[in-house]
Amino acid sequence: MSVTITPEIIPDFDTSLTLCSGNSAPILAITSPNGITGTWNPTAINSSVNGNYIFTPNTGQCATTSTLSVTITPEIIPDFATTLTLCPTDIPPILATTSPNGITGIWNPTVINSSVNGNYIFTPNTGQCAATSNLTVTITPEIIPDFATTLTVCPTDTPPILATTSPNGIIGTWNPTAINSSVNGNYIFTPNTGQCATTSTLSVTITPEIIPDFDTSLTLCSGNSAPILATTSPNGITGTWNPTVINSSVNGNYIFTPNTGQCATTSTLSVTITPEIIPDFATTLTLCPTDIPPVLATTSPNGITGTWNPTAINSSVNGNYIFTPNTGQCATTSTLSVTITPEIIPDFDTSLTLCPTDIPPILATTSPNGITGIWNPTAINSSVNGNYIFTPNTGQCATTSTLSVTSTPEIIPDFDTILTLCPTDIPPILATTSPNGITGTWNPIAINSSVNGNYIFTPNTGQCATTSTLSVTITPEIIPDFDTILTLCPTDIPPILATTSPNGITGTWNPTVINSSVNGNYIFTPNTGQCAAKVTLAVNVSSFKYSVSQECIDNNYFIKVIPNSDFKTSDFNYSWIDDNGNQIGYNDATFNFTEYSERLNNKPLLPLQLKVIVSLESCEIEQVFQIADNLCGIPNVVSPNDDGINDNFNLSSYNVNNLKIFNRYGTEVYNFQGKYENQWYGQWRNGKLPTGTYFYIISTQNGESKAGWVFLSY
Question: Which residues contact 155 (CB under 8 A, 6 or more apart)?
Answer without folding.
Answer: 181, 182, 206, 208, 209, 263
